[in-house]
């Protein structure tokens, strides 16, 4: 029986989720996507400006989701009071759960939902995957648009016969080598990701269409769709493609991604934020705290005000320690050294957890 399936895309204020909204609007206008954002009340102004720009481009409202709707305080401050000043950390990411995941899951309720996630083709991570069976994640920027749980279900050893039958039924002229790959069982020497890569190399569209057919035998949201436009998708977008989408659309790149020069002991370095999210996010690198101190001193002071009663944003040192002149000098020099080393090995600077807005915050949600 046909059921209504909702298509949603979360906007974190970061580059990847914004670029994904542009990409989907441009390439798949037939999909009626609901855009939303989870506001902690502690974002930089550039985040809100990006959301405004996106609404103009999409011609559609980005729905604001807010935790603790009955409170007049910013959601973060409200929860912080309930926790007696206990700040979130990498070990206790309560901000993700209460300020992002909970509002998101309340928003979708028990509806069947396809959630579009902006993880790029050059990233080796999965992002947030809801444990709720009514929510299915799709990754349009990657050659493999499917989540790990879907891949495991399709390629598991006890599903080999069904996979063979689907390929034979949909693509009777399939090359013999494809059947040989399918028949090889997953093992330590032949992991599932290797099997997936081999099948994608022999036909991304074919694999997508077979996966879609097999999903019809499950309770995944896509099982209730008659067709799905992204089955034809073969793109693999990387970091440069994201910035190109933002600039060419006119939406623009948030200023906090634009590198700014700094000087230390006769050396020149460049810094910026590597990701969106709350200005005091504990996932920030030390150099990003210095960026905040020098580029947004008023926000740094607000972040500093939260450090009290023994709670700090960093486990090993306070914000006051970080911005002592001698400490800033060491951090900047080390960052220049690391950046030069990284640039010699890779065309991209490493983005620390970059951004993934369906996971709750820019570090861990969408």
Major sheet size, sense and barrel closure: 5 strands, parallel
What order do the SSEs take from the amino end to the carboxyl end, as H and E? Answer: EHEHEHHEEHHHHHHEEHHHH
Biggest sheet, spatial arrangement of strands:
3-2-1-4-5
Mean pLDDT: 90
Helix tally? 14
Q: Work out the helicity level.
A: 40-55%
CATH class value of the largest domain: Alpha Beta
- The CATH topology label of the largest domain is Rossmann fold
Radius of gyration: 22 Å
First-last Cα distance: 30 Å
Shape: globular
Strand content: 5-15%
Please indicate the count of domains: 3
Number of strands: 7
Low-pLDDT regions: 345-366
Helix vs. strand class: alpha/beta
Classified in CATH, the superfamily of the largest domain is: HUPs
Instruction: Please give the CATH architecture of the largest domain.
Output: 3-Layer(aba) Sandwich
Your description of this structure?
With 366 residues, this protein is α/β, with parallel strands linked by helices. It folds into 3 domains: 5-146 and 231-249, Rossmann fold; 147-230, no CATH class; 255-343, no CATH class. Helix content is 42%, strand content 9%. It has helices at residues 15-27, 45-58, 75-82, 94-108, 148-155, 160-170, 176-183, 192-201, 204-215, 239-249, 286-295, 297-306, 319-322, 325-345, and strands at residues 5-10, 33-38, 63-65, 112-116, 135-138, 260-264, 267-271. The strands form 2 sheets. Strands 3-2-1-4-5 form a 5-stranded parallel β-sheet. Strands 6-7 form a two-stranded antiparallel ribbon. The longest helix has 21 residues, at 325-345. The two termini are 30 Å apart.
